[in-house]
Amino acid sequence: LSNIIRNKRMLKAFYRLDDASTTLDELVERIRFSDEFAAFLRAVLSSSLGVGLDHVGVVSLRESFNKAGMRVERDIGEYALNDSLHGLLTGMFTDAIVLTEFNKQVTSIDYAEAPVVVTRDDERIQASHVIVTVSLAVLQAQKIDFQPALPVSKQQAIARLGMGQGARIFFRLNKPYWPAGIKEIIHSRLPLHLTIHSDAPVLISAFYISTDGRHIEEHELHTLCVETMAKVFGISAIDNIIDVHMENWSANPLIGGAYSYDPPDSVGARTELARSVSDRLFFAGEASVEGHYATVDGAILSGQRAAKEVIEVAG
Question: In Å, how far are 65, 119, 195, 271, 287 from 268, measured between CA atoms?
Answer without folding.
Answer: 11, 31, 34, 5, 12
